[in-house]
């Protein structure tokens, strides 16, 4: 299989497109200009095409680059979404849950629900507030 582009190369290309020049993109991503240039040259070598036209006013995409850009953005966006979802899942298991119920469910159904919840989210903290509906609504309103 042919070598695939590296994520940092795609991010660098996206920054060049966004900022309009290699110099501005390298500053925005806190990289040296030679490192950014080398990254794009390696990307172009991997793909076997020229993606940018470099000039005194910056860099613009070639026709092939304009064809590549939407799919590159889709790949980067999906990867960023996947990473965000993993972080949300991880942080969700470390939160806290507070809920209220009347006396009957607190002794009947709720213990089994809490046990199942704690098995799945071992680091989450659960607080059960027991009381009449009128008391619980007042507590909910004041936070």
Shape, principal axes of CA atoms: elongated
Estimate what percentage of residues fall within beta strands: 5-15%
Overall CATH architecture of the largest domain? Orthogonal Bundle
Mean pLDDT: 88
Work out the radius of gyration: 26 Å
SSE succession: HHHEEHEHHEH
| Class by alpha and beta content | alpha+beta
What is the share of helical residues?
A: 55-70%
What does this structure look like?
The chain has two domains: 7-90, Winged helix-like DNA-binding domain superfamily/Winged helix DNA-binding domain (Arc Repressor Mutant, subunit A), CATH 1.10.10; 95-142. The chain starts with 6 loop residues before the first helix and ends with a helix. The chain has helices spanning 7-19, 22-28, 33-47, 63-92, 103-107, 110-120, 133-142; strands spanning 52-55, 58-61, 96-101, 125-130. The strands form two sheets. The chain has a two-stranded antiparallel sheet. β1 (52-55) and β2 form a beta hairpin. The model has no long low-confidence stretch (mean pLDDT 88). The radius of gyration is 26 Å and the shape is elongated. The chain has 143 residues and is α+β, with helices and mostly antiparallel strands.
Summarize the structure in short.
The protein is of the alpha+beta class and 143 residues long.
Tell me the layout of helices and strands:
Layout lengths: L6 H13 L2 H7 L4 H15 L4 E4 L2 E4 L1 H30 L3 E6 L1 H5 L2 H11 L4 E6 L2 H10 L1
Parallel strand pairs: 3-4
Antiparallel strand pairs: 1-2
